[in-house]
């Protein structure tokens, strides 16, 4: 399936930027070894797809390299085997999963659910073993080396392997709940739900190379609940700042002391009587339509978002997250672009 990816490039000077759109189309793929990834190989696949994961939030793009992940099926000794690779902007598709001839006496395995981890320049994926536990592995894009990270079983839902900004390890979520954000220097994940914010301390998994974020596994005894005067999915701008994708793009700053104080203050108060924490600022004027597709810049200093007014066409805007300026319309970026995948 084709995919159109838009990227934002903010070179100097500060008010200059370049909006680019890249189309990756499997129908136009050229199967060959990559000039940049010498450890890759050409394949003759039965099928090729750019849908790589059941977890729709799992990253699939390497912005700096101009590569997008893909999965394929090839026939090995009469058996269909699933692997993964990357497609370049020129249409070259290179297989990167372990070659079938390297499988040994156990025969070729399926290598599934690849996830891009551009911060560490690697791909994390699952190798099926045929046993009760599969292996979570990582491929270093530069060296071509494979590393075993841990295992996952059917209770952990290996197909929901992911990586998250702020977390230096791979993770598995349940694929059904509201997306989480990593805060407090990687020690905590936070989720916004119908009752407010839930902060889950994951310090008990500090030694795990694969963090289990399924709600059945998270330690409820290490959870802090907070009501907040905002709504929508949360994203971490930094270790102590959350952005909500509500109608006004609310921003909440907090520390561990903030959470402890709120919990102590409400320890004897029924949950429905808790006073919500006020947000520190809002980035978008109220009543100007619906905001969506919020994408923070890598340093958290700016946010891109798409605004669809009650009447008229949608537009894209950029706004500083410190509240120092009003949203600026990106007139050169068509409102018809439905998704920005990444800044680069």
UniProtKB/TrEMBL annotation:
Region Disordered, annotated ranges: 262-344
This protein's name: Uncharacterized protein
């Amino acid at each position: 399936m084709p995919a159109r990816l838009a990227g934002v490039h903010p070179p100097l000077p500060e008010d200059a930027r370049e909006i680019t759109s890249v189309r990756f189309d499997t129908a136009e793929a050229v199967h060959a070894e990559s000039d940049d990834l010498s450890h890759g190989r050409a394949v003759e696949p039965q099928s090729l797809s750019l849908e790589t994961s059941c977890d729709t939030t799992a990253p699939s793009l390497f912005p700096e390299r101009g590569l997008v992940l893909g999965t394929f099926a090839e026939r090995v000794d009469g058996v269909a085997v699933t692997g993964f690779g990357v497609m370049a902007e020129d249409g070259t598709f290179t297989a990167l999963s372990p070659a079938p001839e390297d499988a040994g006496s156990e025969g070729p395995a399926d290598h599934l659910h690849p996830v891009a981890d551009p911060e560490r320049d690697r791909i994390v994926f699952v190798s099926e073993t045929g046993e009760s536990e599969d292996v979570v592995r990582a491929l270093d894009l530069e060296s071509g080396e494979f590393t075993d990270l841990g295992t996952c079983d059917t209770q952990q839902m290996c197909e929901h392997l992911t990586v998250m900004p702020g977390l230096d390890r791979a993770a598995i979520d349940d694929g059904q709940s509201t997306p989480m954000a990593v805060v407090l220097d990687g020690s905590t994940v936070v989720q916004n739900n119908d009752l407010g914010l839930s902060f889950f301390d994951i310090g008990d998994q500090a030694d795990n190379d694969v963090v289990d974020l399924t709600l059945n596994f998270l330690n409820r005894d290490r959870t802090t609940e907070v009501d907040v005067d905002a709504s929508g999915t949360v994203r971490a701008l930094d270790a102590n700042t959350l952005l909500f994708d509500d109608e006004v793009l609310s921003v909440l700053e907090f520390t561990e002391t903030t959470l402890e104080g709120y919990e102590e203050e409400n320890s004897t108060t029924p949950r429905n009587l808790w006073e919500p924490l006020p947000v520190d600022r809002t980035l978008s004027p109220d009543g100007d339509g619906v905001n969506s597709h919020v994408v923070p810049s890598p340093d958290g200093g700016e946010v891109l978002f798409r605004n669809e007014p009650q009447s008229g066409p949608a537009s894209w805007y950029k706004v500083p997250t410190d509240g120092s300026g009003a949203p600026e319309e990106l007139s050169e970026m068509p409102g018809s672009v439905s998704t920005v995948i990444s800044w680069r």
